[in-house]
Amino acid sequence: MLQMNRWFGRAAAAMLVCAAGAPQALAAFPDRPVKLVVPYTPGGAADQLSRVLAERLSRELSQSVVVENKPGANTMIAATQVARAQPDGYTLFLASNASMVLNPMLYQKISYDAARDFRVLSVVAELPLVVVANNEVPATTWAQFVSYAKARPGKLNYASVGIGNPLQLATELLKTRTGIDIAHIPYNGSAPALSSLMANDTQLMVDVISTSLPLVKENKIKALAVTTAERLPVLPDVPTVAESGFPGFRAATWFGVAVPLATPAAEAKALQDAVARVMAQPDFRERFQTLGLVIQAPRDQAETDRYVAEDRERWGAVIRANQIKLD
């Protein structure tokens, strides 16, 4: 009997130790450095966002967050690496609408499934798009350009940085919404595309605000509209497409933070909350205005899921309507 009592005593003590240790184990996350995989080369707007985000997250998590640049294959190399990473909360991905929305619908051969392999924790920033035109086009607003194009069906061209790129898809979305007939001329990068616009080889382009803004300010091209829901502080006098007679229109690329889908809920929530605290910092929000990045208000998981689902629905309709497929 004495031996049995001792056994029960030891068992009870062990259970108390385990119970006391459980909260401490949970609170310890992360107990080693966290990696943020960025599918872009160093130096661009996305890379700058990721580095400042990693620095701020390091403070919030009391643990180093290290950026690893892994460019290539239109974000698919990095996305595949993270999809196959250990789902323990220590590998984050700088997700975007390219990796989470467009690539799975565009590419016939892709080595990850965005919906089944990832959980998007946060949409951190939107990269607004601006509709720009050649200076010789006799239109100063988007509504005027639509009228001008409708009077010349098939005679105008628009530039893009490649088939299936968000900029091309945004232009096709505009064409669908307005009913204009304008030919697509793809270029290998924004520099030659903008050069064609300035030379009047093309008359229209949808571009990210960061690359077109200097040319707009130098009066080398003109801004007709922005595709965001609200006007941009860097172009306060340029109306939105929605304001220009096409209510509800919205198109933007975005960057966020994702983890492998099997990441435990507690670790995912800790990361999500840390990202939300960074996004709420006023100086973090203001820092990226000059780059054309609009830091978003924090969303909970349900709101984030809905945002991504709506983005898939929006771009999926454009891709299907134009039967765009990439190898």
Automatic annotation (TrEMBL):
Record's signal peptide: 1-27
Lineage: superkingdom: Bacteria
SUPFAM superfamilies documented for this protein: Periplasmic binding protein-like II
CDD domains xrefs: PBP2_Bug27 (cd13578)
A family per Pfam: TctC
Keyword Signal on entry: yes
Keywords from the UniProt entry: Receptor, Signal
Keyword Signal among UniProt keywords: yes
InterPro entries: BUG, Bug_dom1
Protein family: Belongs to the UPF0065 (bug) family.
Stated name of the protein: Tripartite tricarboxylate transporter substrate binding protein
Source species: Achromobacter marplatensis
